[in-house]
Amino acid sequence: MTSAHPASGTPEHPHDLVGIGIGPSNLSLAALAHHLPHPLDTAFYDQQPAFHWHPGTLLDDTTLPTPFLADLVTLADPTNPWSFLNYLRTHHRLLPFHLARQLHIHRAEYQAYARWVSDHLPGLHFHHHVDSIRWNPELALFEVDYDRHDPHSDTHTHGRTHTRNIALATGTEPHIPDPLKPLVDAPAVPVIHSSDYLHHRDRLRTTPHVTVIGSGQSGAEIFLDLLRTRPPGREQLHWLTRTPAFTPTPHTPLSLEHLTPDHAHYFHHLPEHVRNDLTPRHAHLHKAIDPTTLTAIHQELYRRTLHGSWPDTTLTPGVRVRTAGRLATTKVELHLEHTEQGTRSRLTTDAVILATGYRERPHHRLLAALDPYIRRDSKERPRTDQHHRLILDPAVTGNVYTQNGTTHTHGIGAPSHTLTAWRAATILNHLTGKNPYPQPDRTAFTTFGLERREPTHIPPQERRLTPLTRHT
Question: Could you list the mean pLDDT of each consecutive 10-residue stretch along the chain, which spans 472 residues?
């Protein structure tokens, strides 16, 4: 789609905001920005041909871990036309959804909803790969260079746009553990990341012996999916995890209050070394397995014992892969170590599925020209303020907001869908200086810390903003 402001993006008519990456986070930001009383001049760029959200993991019976109200906009603006409920109404499915009594929607339906938003929301530019971001001190603007791919002629053209503010949301990429990296590139024996599971599903269903590695939701869903397709007694499935147990996610409301703005504010004010220590200790709040999935696995395994034999499956927690190699061209050998027993063994398998999670895409190449301006912590991570804004040298009068890679500053709720709309609203409140999406003073019954800290509201005169001049 084209921008709503054809002449904008030039030094004379710069954008108010340019977003890089069009995943759920920046799509939320674009949707909320579009519904402002005085809409901003925005442009969002992504190298993908269209919106895609983990297409290799959209199994038919999998759902989002968060309820449907945690869509792109509702928790910040229930009246927004880009809500999930309005998507249902537009597609004449609102009453059937109500009668289905669903709280958690299917992932495939979330993908369809977000795709609907991206197909109709103006100012989104796919087939655009952003190469670099620079600060131009003479213009007091950011320069964004991109490469545009024309799918019809298969040609590339270079372009540049100018903006007062940037919003980074480049997402994550699959994480491959070091011992298994050499195996992924060889196609003879499938060693794949869970993000590509659906693309290899048919082949894996007929592969004699399959090993799943990983303790999170994706590993559990894939193990269950494979288990259901295999004959009783001849399953030949291994499931290995580094964690000491197959840990369920806490679904009690008080536990989930760690995914609220209250906890994000509390976490942000903690000393850096305390935040570093807390982050891995809170991992179980968002990296574990939905209890319903664990129950379904156990029920399927139990059903296979009804005729007197145990299923040919091995589920072993507390195991790490030391090294791995290929046996001839048809099998993989995993060298394993049990972390509690201190014992070692070898496992020969015909395929490996790495449900080993994702890592934030690094920004160092994209932000190389801005690196001298970026303030970093003791681990060389960019420092981020409460408004999800990179802390830059005062010489830069524009803002770079980031919607990824803030777990170390905002806690384990940062990557959760629960806070997607809140984070986007926080950015827009700060960027406009007009508080168009008022935030509640309190969002949790839990009081985090002995001293309650309220969100910091920066006076207008202290905001590092460039006036948002309207262009017609």
Answer: 57 96 97 94 96 90 91 97 98 96 93 97 96 97 96 92 97 90 77 94 94 95 96 95 91 89 95 94 84 96 94 97 88 95 96 93 90 95 95 97 93 91 97 94 94 56 45 36
3-class DSSP state of 460: helix
For residue 24, give every residue at least 6 positions away whose Cβ sits within 8 Å of its Cβ, in sequence order, or none: 53, 72, 114, 417, 420
Is the Cβ–Cβ distance between 19 and 108 less than 8 Å? no
Pairing relation of β-strands 42-45 and 351-354?
A: unpaired
- Cα distance between residue 402 and residue 414, in whole Å: 11
Q: Is the dihedral of CA 180, 182, 187, 189 positive or negative?
A: negative
pTM of the model: 0.91
**Residue 376: φ, ψ to 5°:** -125, 160
Helix ranges, 39-93 (H): 84-90
Coil, strand or helix at 169: coil
Q: Are 321 and 336 in contact (CB under 8 A)?
A: yes
Which residues pair with residue 248 across a beta bridge? 289
Structure-token pair, residue 328: 């001839």
